[in-house]
């Protein structure tokens, strides 16, 4: 009914939508933006943190280990970076923790749902506890984080963005918990985008192929070779972070509900 009324009003008043083309300048792409990055202490999350700060954003990162968070805070040594200890799968704490996080810079404009866990255990050996831990972290926490953040933006009549770290495992189908969770996250990203854009909230995702991160046990300084894609190498966290910067910036404001794949052509082979 709402969409029908909009169409009728549009025909009556012949409303012309004003479009402003983003003029982007590196070094200030995210100026005046406050960004929350879950799982921001290593790999893709750490690379995202670095680039967001470089582009003028104020950043809050979460992680499970206070010691690791403090090391990142010291390493970046920026007044625009705050840290917050949070096991993201504790969904009952989302509202309370968001309220605490918003006290740092007064608001949150963009959320990167980047936290995730993985196990390489054989399918026949995975326990229910391990299955639940992966699902709670990789998909359930994202569902309820998005829910709370979207409610907040709608109530405050503000626009915002959500970027989810998915995986090409979400495109290939899977039987192990990690792949199943990322498959679900792929669908959630696209589905939520339909709801979000009605309220000025832009939601997209990034689907990396195998990436040189701690979770994969790969150090690119030692060996980045990978035979299963056309580029014959793994992705770097910094490459994935650049996609994140693009999606967070005004340059991507007309991209909605998309999951950008960065896998060196692996899903084409």
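^ structure tokens above, recovered residues below v
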């Amino acid at each position: 009914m709402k969409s029908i009324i909009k169409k009728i009003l549009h025909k009556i008043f012949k409303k012309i939508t004003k479009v402003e083309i983003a003029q982007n300048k590196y070094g200030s792409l995210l100026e005046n933006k406050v960004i929350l990055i879950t799982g921001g202490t290593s790999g893709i999350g750490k690379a995202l943190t670095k680039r967001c700060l470089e582009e003028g954003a104020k950043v809050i990162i979460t992680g499970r280990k206070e010691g690791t968070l403090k090391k990142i805070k010291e390493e970046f040594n920026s007044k625009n970076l705050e840290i917050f200890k949070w096991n993201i799968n504790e969904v009952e704490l989302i509202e309370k923790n968001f309220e605490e996080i918003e006290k740092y810079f007064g608001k949150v404009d963009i959320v990167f749902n980047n936290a995730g866990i993985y196990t390489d255990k054989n399918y026949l050996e995975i326990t229910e506890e391990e299955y639940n831990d992966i699902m709670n972290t990789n998909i359930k926490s994202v569902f309820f984080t998005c829910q709370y953040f979207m409610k907040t933006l709608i109530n405050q009549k503000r626009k915002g963005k959500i970027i989810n770290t998915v995986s090409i495992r979400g495109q290939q189908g899977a039987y192990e918990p990690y792949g199943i969770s990322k498959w679900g996250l792929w669908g959630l990203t696209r589905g939520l985008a339909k709801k979000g854009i009605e309220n000025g909230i832009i939601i997209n995702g990034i689907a990396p192929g195998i990436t040189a991160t701690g979770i994969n046990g790969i150090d690119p300084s030692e060996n980045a070779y990978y035979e299963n894609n056309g580029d014959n190498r793994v992705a770097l966290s910094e490459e994935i972070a650049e996609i994140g910067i693009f999606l967070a910036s005004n340059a991507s404001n007309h991209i909605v509900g998309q999951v950008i794949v960065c896998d060196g052509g692996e899903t084409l082979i």
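Residues 128-156 form the longest helix (29 residues).
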